[in-house]
């Protein structure tokens, strides 16, 4: 068995090698991206049932010099594995806070909240709270306008520490949303302990909501849960008016998705926000 194992290993060697070096190249590229200015934030509107834009999610983009746009779905997991998520996450937070501060004097932008995705590894840094407080202070962004999107994977270990950090940030006004809700394994008893403001229905449940009774049931359950816990519920990945209507019938509060807009570079997002105010 040992010999066979060794043969198998040798057989896969070139392929493994290719995977390893592709990863290494991506990692080196990501370091350059952080050092240079290949990273950008795109902004996707969050719209209420009354067609008001109340917020926006900031989504990171990597404009690779050779490959063009590399999806965060590809490089965020790598950044998490390598620890690059720490400088990357800090850059995202800082950029979002600067943007918030720059909107403060503009009537068509000043009411918007900016939601920022925070990786578990980033959140678990001992000085995470201090980092956020320092960034808010340094940029002048209003804490009440910043919302942090956390995922359920954060809740598997060290729940007391998570609650303590959230509570410290909530005290100054920072809001919290639980992202991709329903895809993880958070226990409902944990959920009750967290100082959350919002639950986000994952797009995986929205996609087939009109045809898959299980997805519809989960969406209904999340809205009911949000109601009973006093949390706003937002659905992501809303692409059609029929999906939006179905979610509205369940009592969903806000929506995000291609139905309203794709994530946009800053200039395009600002003109879209302007048109929302004028409508
Ligand atoms: P996510 O937080 O669940 O973000 C939603 C993703 O769905 C985004 O993909 C967005 O572009 C996409 N999306 C929005 N509306 C629609 C729609 O109507 N239909 C479909 N099919 N997709 C839609 P994106 O921007 O590629 O980001 C992928 C994931 O990468 C994010 O998922 C998030 O987990 C991660 N990510 C993105 N930016 C950051 C960041 O700054 N920090 C961290 N830690 N993670 C990030
Ligand atoms: Ca998110
Ligand atoms: Ca999400
Ligand atoms: Ca998602």
TrEMBL record:
Q: Source organism's superkingdom?
A: Bacteria
Ranges of residues in domain EAL: 23-277
Q: What is the recorded name of this protein?
A: Diguanylate cyclase (GGDEF)-like protein/PAS domain S-box-containing protein
> What range of the parent protein does this fragment cover?
775 to 1053 of 1062
């Amino acid at each position: 068995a040992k010999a066979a194992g060794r043969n198998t290993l040798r057989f896969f060697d070139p392929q493994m090698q290719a995977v390893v070096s592709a990863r290494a190249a991506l990692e080196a590229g990501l370091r350059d991206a952080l050092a240079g200015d290949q990273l950008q934030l795109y902004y996707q509107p969050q719209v209420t049932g009354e067609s008001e834009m109340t917020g926006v999610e900031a989504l990171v983009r990597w404009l690779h010099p050779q490959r063009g746009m590399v999806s965060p779905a590809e490089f965020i997991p790598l950044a998490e594995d390598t620890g690059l998520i720490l400088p990357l996450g800090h850059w995202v937070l800082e950029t979002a806070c600067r943007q918030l501060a720059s909107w403060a004097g503009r009537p068509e932008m000043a009411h918007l909240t900016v939601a920022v995705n925070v990786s578990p590894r980033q959140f678990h840094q001992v000085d995470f709270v201090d980092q956020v407080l320092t960034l808010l202070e340094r940029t002048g962004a209003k804490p009440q306008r910043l919302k942090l999107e956390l995922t359920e994977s954060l809740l598997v270990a060290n729940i007391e520490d998570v609650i303590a950090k959230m509570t410290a940030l909530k005290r100054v006004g920072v809001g919290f949303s639980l992202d991709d809700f329903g895809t993880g394994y958070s226990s409902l008893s944990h959920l009750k302990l967290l100082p959350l403001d919002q639950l986000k229905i994952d797009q995986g449940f929205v996609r087939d909501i009109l045809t898959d009774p299980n997805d519809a049931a989960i969406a209904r359950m999340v809205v009911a849960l949000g109601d009973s816990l006093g949390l706003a519920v937002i659905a992501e990945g809303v692409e059609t008016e029929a999906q939006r209507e179905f979610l509205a019938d369940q009592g969903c509060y806000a929506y995000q998705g291609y139905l309203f807009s794709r994530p946009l570079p800053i200039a395009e997002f600002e003109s879209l926000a302007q048109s929302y105010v004028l409508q």
